[in-house]
Amino acid sequence: QVQLVDSGGGLVQAGGSLRLSCVASQLPTSFNAMGWYRQAPGQRRELVASMTKYDGSTYYKDSVKGRFTISRDNAENTMYLQMNSLKPEDTAVYYCHLEDDYYRLYFGQGTQVTVSS
Question: 55 — phi, psi (to 5°)?
Answer without folding.
Answer: -120, 0
